[in-house]
């Protein structure tokens, strides 16, 4: 690491910015300088947005989403379908599905995937709450929208087994060629899945 | 732009983070999520570091550096050589030179370069203050450590002309092959400069 060339306040700011994903020490310095230069336009509003977020944002005790209310605005939205629970790994995945406006039902954020090597077992995920929610009579389908990784798929398999006694339908996302995807750039696994699940025209 | 899928507080936070250099909307969302997840470890300390920076950081009225004191700690450091002023375009450049520990003298931050097309003239840079500082009897050399760009070099040329009447020595950084640089990856201009300024062994 380079030696500190500024006062402790600026160094502390750079250090904290560099903890954000996607920012290294160099880009954190650039970001800190930008903040200092644009004090009134960027630094002051950012500080107040952070203070507001610290004060107001809570985790939804039902689904695990983050919002300013608990239960969150998705869980309390009367217009949403209560028969479908879409299970995702993280809040980022929930946001991605919400941006696509493709889920009319509820969500359930696991907070990770099973990973025995990292010591992450069922009790480390929000699985008990999922079983509890899936047991409610109005729930008819649990869509496991987990990442198509080894961890994601083995977690989906585990959850499916847990849900069998409840008699609830489980489903997963379709695998295939992404819209806009070029075959030349796709891996063999995706191509094999797309061919296996081919549709008649 | 994607539609908002979270509350206004989180959206505002994402919007402000995305204004930092090097962060787009997608990485800003990831950074915001990271902050929310690591509330006590990252978000709270970052908010307080920003508040402290807002409160304490000022621009040095002598050299244009940013610090918590005015004049800054470099300008008031008695151990530094007062006969040399190193002129840089930005505070980021000053930090880079300080990290390298190569300047034993003072600095002067211009705050940009002359750029007639963008309407940036001599009065938009901290040039008057530089002339004033260079007129002091203890100053014997002004090192123009400006970027080797058209704007940087024409600004250096302009400043040199302004300093002639003061009888102060002006210098610039050497051009050549960067240490660790591979010839194959260097542009013709750098190679030409390196050959022109070659040293006998």
Structure description:
The structure is a homodimer of 201-residue chains. By secondary structure, the first copy, chain A, is an alpha/beta fold. Chain A has two domains: 49 residues, Helicase, Ruva Protein, domain 3; 135 residues, Dna Topoisomerase Vi A Subunit, Chain: A, domain 2 (3-Layer(aba) Sandwich). In chain A, helix 1 crosses helix 2. The first copy, chain A, is globular, with a radius of gyration of 22 Å. The N and C termini of chain A lie far apart (59 Å). The mean pLDDT of chain A is 91.
Radius of gyration of chain A: 22 Å
Query: In CATH terms, what is the fold-level topology of the largest domain in chain A?
Result: Dna Topoisomerase Vi A Subunit, Chain: A, domain 2
Largest sheet of chain A: 4 strands, parallel
Strand order of the largest sheet of chain A: 4-3-5-6
Q: What is the string of helix and strand elements of chain A? A: HHHEEEHEHEHEH
């Amino acid at each position: 690491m380079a030696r500190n060339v500024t006062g402790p306040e600026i160094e502390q700011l750079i250090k904290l910015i560099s903890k954000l994903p996607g920012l290294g020490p160099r880009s954190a310095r650039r970001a800190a300088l930008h903040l200092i230069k644009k004090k009134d336009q960027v630094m002051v509003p950012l500080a107040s947005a952070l203070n507001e977020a610290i004060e107001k944002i809570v985790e939804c005790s039902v689904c695990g989403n983050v919002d300013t209310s608990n239960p969150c605005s998705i869980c309390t939205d009367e217009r949403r379908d209560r028969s479908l629970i879409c299970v995702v790994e993280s809040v980022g995945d929930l946001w991605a599905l919400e941006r696509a406006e493709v889920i009319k039902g509820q969500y359930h954020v696991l907070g990770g995937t099973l990973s025995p090597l990292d010591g992450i077992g069922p009790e480390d995920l929000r699985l008990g709450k999922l079983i509890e929610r899936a047991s409610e009579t109005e729930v008819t389908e649990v869509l496991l929208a987990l990442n198509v990784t080894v961890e994601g798929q083995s977690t989906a398999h585990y959850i499916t087994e847990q849900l069998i006694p409840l008699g609830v339908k489980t489903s997963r996302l379709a695998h295939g060629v992404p819209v806009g995807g070029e075959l030349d750039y796709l891996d063999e696994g995706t191509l094999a899945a797309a061919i296996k699940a081919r549709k008649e025209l």
